[in-house]
Amino acid sequence: MVVEPMAVEVDRFDQGALGRGAALASLLGDWTSGPGPLYRKLADALARAVREGALRAGDRLPAERELAGVLAVSRATVVGAYDELRGREVIERRQGSGTRISRATRAPLSDGRVRGGGAGTIFQRLIDGPGPLISLACAADRGGHEVTEALQDVLSLDMDALLGDPGYHPRGLPVLREAIAEHYTAHGLPTCADQILVTTGAHQALVVIAEVYLRKAATVVVEAPSWPACLDVFRSASAELVPVPMDDEGIEVRALRAALVEHAPALLYVMPSYHNPTGVLMSEMRRRQVVELAARYDVPILEDNAYAGMGLSDNALETPAPLATVAGDEVESVMVESLGKAVWGGLRIGWVRGPVEVIERCARRKALADLGSPVIDQAVAARLVPRLDELARNRSAGQRERCTALEELLRQRLPDWRWRRPDGGSSLWVELPDTNADVFAQLALRHGVEVIPGSTMDHTGGHENFLRIPFTHSQDVLEELVQRLCRAWAELRRHGPQDSAPLRPII
After folding, report:
1. What distance in Å separates the CA atoms of residue 282 and residue 284, rounded to the nearest whole number?
2. How many of the other CB atoms lie within 10 Å of CB of 159?
3. CATH 3.90.1800.10 describes domain 175-389
4. Res. 130 pLDDT band, cuts 50 70 90
5. Which of 57, 109, 219, 472 lies 20 to 30 A from 93 at CA?
6. Model's pTM, two decimal places?
7. How many CA atoms lie within 13 A of 392 on its CB side?
8. Which of 2.30.36.70, 3.40.50.20, 2.40.50.100, 3.90.1150.10 would CATH assign to domain 120-143+392-495?
């Protein structure tokens, strides 16, 4: 039997990792804002997704009841939206196969999304800006006066030297690579500049590493939960992700061993220092166990230390040694770090630390991407890296105060919510009692808060009642945030999903 192209399109959408309803909700974004009845706003949002190519001809939409449950609206709202879209000839009903995007629709070749990914909403908010929402999509802080001082030094002292060559440094500005190498060496991890590749943020570092390590049908073992933007990098390289659960000491050892034995992965990806989103600091014992397993089964380790130094205790910098230190020569270990959390994400300075031959392969891909990161930004970073411990300590002190403030607000206003105080990082990983966080996220949007539900960070379904709440906002914003969350929670608890169904005159 010949399979029509339409059937391929159906599979593409139906096999989304989050399920059709939750996956579709993530495409719609802040669809409830603006005037008009909800059913018409939902119809407009679905039609926009078709125009932009996020939904394509033949994609099967969720049943009315399923989508209503995920969006926290009545079934009548979804029925009204689907009726509206049928009138516009955007969707069609097929006997035995449900509601689908009309075959007559024409959309762009690509909307730029990673299929099956979970970071689309986060990146779209960066593109659109927060608007009137309090967005919890980005857990990053503003830059400090140290950046200004470093920039002034560069402009007054270093510009002649910087302008003395063409400005292309695919491996990174030599003075910055030396500074990063000296930073690691001072912390007990002997490193030379040839083991460092400077990248445009940690995200690009993950991209070039994925290009080096991942071939077609490769497998990557990851923690569950994990940060969706990082997972989407591996998905974009067509890798299969094998999630392994975590406990209070990091990735679970027995489950990790089973995953390594069964899947023989090309890479093990972990965030040992203040894991995102849980804030867990992997214990020293667990680090040794992870390295031993990686050595036994010959699996390279990709260590993401984006939150290095960002602990919430008074001795936050006294964290266990990086996995790269524990691994020594036994395991091929690659480490990613950046200035994004401890200093400022706007510098877009990250780096890879690894074996010289791996760095060389990464540098070739970096050169193909952009010929090298901006030189002035790197010169500023070179003045900041020697102060990285001090800057991380100062940033952590502010984070500690705001974390305490957010916890107190939540205990007062939402006492049935539960969380484990993070060891570090910039967010609380909050458990909602008996509530799907995707549903709550829809109600929160109507109260002016954009939350990131746990389903985007763990497609196994293990954290569907969790959400991440950053404490990077100021005190007044945190207070307003908790007030809005409280109103959304009260609506859900007292009344359940509410909306305005379309009015249909009876004639």
Report:
1. 7
2. 12
3. no
4. low
5. 109
6. 0.84
7. 27
8. 3.90.1150.10
